[in-house]
From TrEMBL:
Keywords: Allosteric enzyme, Glycosyltransferase, GTP-binding, Magnesium, Nucleotide-binding, Transferase. GO terms for biological process: UMP salvage; uracil salvage. Uracil binds at I194, G199, D200, A201. Catalyzes the conversion of uracil and 5-phospho-alpha-D-ribose 1-diphosphate (PRPP) to UMP and diphosphate. It catalyses: UMP + diphosphate = 5-phospho-alpha-D-ribose 1-diphosphate + uracil. InterPro entries: PRTase-like (IPR029057), PRTase_dom (IPR000836), Upp_B (IPR034332), UPRT (IPR005765), UPRTase/APRTase (IPR050054). This is Uracil phosphoribosyltransferase. 5-phospho-alpha-D-ribose 1-diphosphate binds at R79, R104, D131, P132, M133, L134, A135, T136, G137, G138, S139, D200. Allosterically activated by GTP. Its cofactor is Mg(2+). It comes from Heliorestis acidaminivorans. Gene3D superfamilies: 3.40.50.2020. Binds 1 Mg(2+) ion per subunit. The magnesium is bound as Mg-PRPP.
């Protein structure tokens, strides 16, 4: 079963509370999503390997650590996932960026893929899939399948808010994919929106309805 990690860092929790507020304007919403994404990127990359190098400081020669060169990729599930990309690449500027377009059919609620553009060496990279909401899990599961069909084998899913139904779907369909979220909410309403959630992340981020 896929491991679920709920990030309880005080700054993440504080900023997520601000994001949830319905009267939060698009500008502030975008800024807060980027900030939370950056904080989550910090936590998600704790496992990255290091190697010892020798450098010269203004004072002396020092042995210190740098990243060991592990290749990373950040893949956004369109369109709301775009809001989390900048926070990740500010911390991981060498990461390649990919996009997967998935929409949920309003009648069947099933995911439909309409676009994918991924790094050519996706099979050689650890992939961090970002999307603010994990509701039914259908879109995320479909995106993970797209990645695996392209050869990706090291994948983590990073979301701001998750519903138990979405977590269960990923754990069933992709038990090898670790899930990171800032909050595990109560569940879904009749329209498959997360309760209490934060509304439609894409509309709030881009100022659309």
């Amino acid at each position: 079963m896929a491991k679920l990690t709920i990030m309880d860092h005080p700054l993440i929790q504080h900023k997520l509370s601000l994001i949830r507020q319905k009267d939060r304007g698009a500008k502030e919403f975008r800024e807060l999503v980027e900030e939370v994404a950056m904080l989550m990127a910090y936590e998600v990359t704790r496992h990255l390997p290091l190697k010892e190098v020798e450098i010269e400081t203004p004072v002396a020669i020092a042995k210190t650590n740098i990243l060991a060169g592990k290749k990373l990729g950040v893949v956004a599930i369109l369109r709301a996932g775009l809001g989390m990309i900048s926070g990740f690449v500010k911390l991981i500027p060498a990461a390649k960026i990919g996009h997967i377009g998935i929409y949920r059919d309003p009648d069947t609620l099933e995911p439909v893929e309409y676009f994918s553009k991924l790094p050519q060496d996706v099979a050689d990279r650890e992939i961090l899939v970002v999307d603010p909401m994990l509701a039914t899990g259908g879109s995320a599961s479909a995106a993970l399948s797209v990645l695996k069909n392209k050869g990706a084998r090291q994948i983590k899913l990073v979301v701001l808010v998750a519903a138990p139904e979405g977590v269960a779907r990923i754990q069933k369909d992709h038990p090898d994919v670790e899930i990171f979220t800032a909050a595990l909410d109560e569940g879904l309403n009749d329209h498959a929106y997360i309760i209490p959630g934060l509304g439609d992340a894409g509309d709030r981020f881009f100022g659309t309805k």
